[in-house]
Amino acid sequence: MHIPDGYLSPQTYGPLFGVSFVFWSVALKKIKKDLSVKQIPYLAMAAVFSFLIMMFNIPIPGGTTGHAVGGGMIAILLGPWTAVVAVSVVLIIQALVFGDGGITALGANCFNIAVAGPFVSYWVFRAVKGKSSKPSRLSTAAFLSGYIGLTVSALLVALQLGIQPLIAHGPDGQPLYAPYPLSVALPVVALEHLLLFSVVEGVVTLLLLKYFLKHEPDLIYSLEAQRTRT
Amino acid sequence: MKSKIPAFLIERTSVQPYVPSKGRLKKSFIEKGIDHLAEVIKSGYVQWETSLMDSIFHRIDARIKLLFLLFFVVIVSLKHQIVPEFYIAGFIFLLTLIAGLNTLQFYKKVLFLGFFFGFLVALPSALNVISRGEVVVPILHLSRDYNFWVYHIPAEIGMTREGLNAVSMLTIRVVNSVSLSFLVLFTTPFPEIIKALKVMRVPDSFIMIITLCYKYIFIFVKTVEDMHLAKKSRTVGQVNNAEARQWVGARIGSVFKKTQLRCEEIFKAMLGRGFSTEIRLYQSRKLSSHDIAAGGIFLVIGGLFLWM
Known about the structure:
The complex is a heterodimer of chains A (230) and B (308).
Chain A: H1 10-31, H2 39-53, E1 58-60, E2 64-66, H3 71-78, H4 80-97, H5 106-129, H6 135-162, H7 164-167, H8 182-215, H9 221-229
Antiparallel strand pairs in A: 1-2
Chain B: H1 7-10, E1 18-21, E2 24-27, H2 29-51, H3 62-78, H4 82-98, H5 103-122, E3 135-141, E4 146-148, E5 151-153, E6 156-160, H6 161-185, H7 190-196, H8 204-234, H9 241-272, H10 289-307
Helix pairs in contact in B: 2-8, 3-6, 3-7, 3-10, 4-6, 5-6, 7-8
């Protein structure tokens, strides 16, 4: 899911840095006009939580294990703008410390995982849940938010990789960056996510929401935000 | 004679470290979790240890090293020929020697990532199904060509010269980028790298979030590791996948609660240390002549690589 260095051409990673920069600026402003001291530990801990979600391996049918990405979960629990900052911080640390995701690809990774995923998850959750507070409706909303959020992130990754042979190729037509065309990148990424990874994400989001509905329903931002509005 | 050993001690557990599966051993989700967490702690520890060593490269200011990293990573991404990439690789190797890093350990890590993310992921693209060109490594012969939708499968499937060139290029580019990141990471304490982001006009508040997050990641990774070890030590019966997923969901929820509680504690500690509403990081020291000289050398060499 994290794009490494070398796969994206400058004409792709440059603009995506710009887009992510806009979202980072708006996110910091949205969370608090002038970020106060109190928000610092709050956002730092949200980022820690986002990092830790990926540390839990979860058994999936077939005898293997997978892990969730968690962007959607953070968006539901803490709000989409908090998720933008928290997940971006984690991606920066992962790229610099663990070599997970490239430095030139940081803007693209942040856009896919920290911006698109959480926002899609949040909107899907709100749309599917509607005004209902039935447990079955909430469970469906939670599963779909995780499932669709991660799928959209993955499709964006596939799109960015798949257009490389079209926009950056040598005089002989050979790709200079990611070598797989859209006709390969898109179906491969879509299939593995639709059938496996997004299911894991959906299941973990559902389990987490169930846990919070049972023990601490007041901590769920997306439910609280709706209550405040009505 | 009936065995007096309690049934739960004889029973095979599903959470045993290794589960046999078709001639190979599979790790349970708890073991994988523990391995994953241990790897995070190890990475942090190794980075901390090596960044505190002393060498000419270690002594260069973090701001210069950060700019060097960004400049060279962009150069690596701009080069389209394999020879300049090899020159860059040679230059990075020279810097690892100057920095006194354990080159074997360093390149073991770099080459593993390069092999995985560069070579292995890109290798299938060398097949003539994806890369058109002269087949130099034939693999399979079919009776005829096949066409469906936008896909064309030729009768002779193999790797093309052009495809292999592209794979080599991508691999060396990934290796160079990863080695540049690790070179800077292993020679600079992480908080210094983050503080150096100030030169790129990153707000102090954002830098502080990253610094706090980095510190607490290791504290919480230990907490999560303890959760896994506790689960492992008290599991004697059969745990099915559904139960395991419930456990993971509840533990993630519990971690979330712990991080929220820690927020309050950190905030109180910050107030206790005299934090006001304004966030301001200490100014870094002035750049020395050694830093400026290093910056100049990197600029000239980078320019040379760009020109090549």
